[in-house]
Amino acid sequence: MLRTALPEIVTGSVPGPKAKEIIDRRDAAVPGAIRCAYPVAIACGEGAMIEDVDGNRFLDWIGGVGVLNIGFSHPEIVEAVKAQADKYFHGMFNIVTHEGYVALAEKLAQITPVKGESKKCFFANSGAEADENAVKVARAYTGRPNIICFTGAFHGRTMLTMTMTAKKAYTTGMGPLVNGVFRAQFPNLYHSSLSEAETIQNALDSVTNLFEEACPANTVAAIVLEPLQGEGGFIPAPIEFVKGLRKICDEHGICLVADEVQSGSCRTGKMFASEYWAEAGCAPDIMTTAKSIAAGMPISCIIARSEIMDAIPGGTVGGTFCGNPLACAAGLKTIEIMERDNLAARSAEIGEKVTARVKEWMDKYPVIGNVRGLGAMIGIEFVKDPATKEPYGELVTAMVQECVQRGLMIEPAGRYGQVVRFLAPLVITDEQLEKGLEIFEEALQACLSK
């Protein structure tokens, strides 16, 4: 059974002949801007495993970039979607009410850690749409135009979220960008020469400096923050930093927005990473989530206390496919499975195993400069020199290709592509996890010996 299988490359190398044919067709039919670094053409997927059209089997540490926390093709999700499909595929929520949308909104209101007792939420189709709608909500509630985000941030590829995203390689040839977006410093503790407290204070000062130099506090609608930066290199936001942001927001009537598009759905050892914030007394006002919310069906969520949501002018949010019935059915079943199978605890267990192994490697391979994360959302940063911490993106690029030839799929992150991100499905077996770690070390040794 593929769900419990181990990696195996039966064609000797990849891509095999059938995959190469499909990849060649892709190159002819799809813009090259939609890049794919992996010579894999999927035929089927189960759990944490992919089988390609040539019969090669790959262990997936990417999980659709955080979409597949409960794995590929979970049989209960398949049945839930089939059952809904037998009734109706679509019913635009602006036209007819369907109970799945309401039930999923009720469930998310119950389990999400946003500030306030009474909560409401609505749905979009992607993480970028959710983040863009969160800005709309904050603007509607505060009556203010401006947004503050951070260095290293990734929030999407719509025109607004592309502006909010720090890495401007994503905006090449796409300007002019949107006005009203300002950037403060994210506290990257590993790359700071200061103490943790000083690094955090400098980052907080960079926010208040914006009030003086760019956007007065009374013009700022929201401060948007990833609890754990994704594209930025899997860097957790220090809790003391979040506490400081919460204080700033409370003092100036600004909404604190947690972008949990990638960090939600049990990925970080909690159902949502901002549960850590809530436990520290700094819960967000608005939260967005997507990716694993429905096990691969396209849906995203924007949630806030009712007072904030009720400020949205009629007709300014919503859309044709937002809260599609099939996706809502998948979302409800996904949450049920995650709670029943305690995948948050499994995430923490996986994270402990991977982090412990990487720390062992750090003694043998000085190119591993840092390992950090929350739960099973882990970043492994590679450096040319542990003293200078110069990024070693070239090594990570080589490892991506070396690993896939051995049956393991990994993905880079970070400003210079120097970080390997761990996002394996939480249903990965212990045997698969061990095999993946074995392949990863073998690939590292092979790349270092070249």
Could you describe the 3D structure shown?
There is one protein chain. This protein has 450 residues and is α/β, with parallel strands linked by helices. It has 14 helices and 17 strands. The strands form 4 sheets. The protein has a 7-stranded mixed sheet, with helices on both faces. A 4-stranded mixed sheet has the order 1-2-3-15. Strands 13-14-17-16 form a 4-stranded antiparallel sheet, with helices on one face. A hairpin with a 4-residue loop joins strand 2 and strand 3 (57-60). The protein is globular and about 60 Å long. It starts with 16 loop residues before the first helix and ends with a helix.
CATH homologous superfamily grouping of the largest domain: Type I PLP-dependent aspartate aminotransferase-like (Major domain)
Strand order across the biggest sheet? 4-12-11-10-7-5-6
Rg to the nearest angstrom? Answer: 22 Å
DSSP strand count: 17
Indicate how many domains the architecture comprises: 2
Figure out the total of helices.
14
Shape call: globular
The CATH architecture of the largest domain would be 3-Layer(aba) Sandwich
Query: What structural class is derived from the secondary structure elements?
Result: alpha/beta
Helix percentage range: 25-40%
CATH class of the largest domain: Alpha Beta
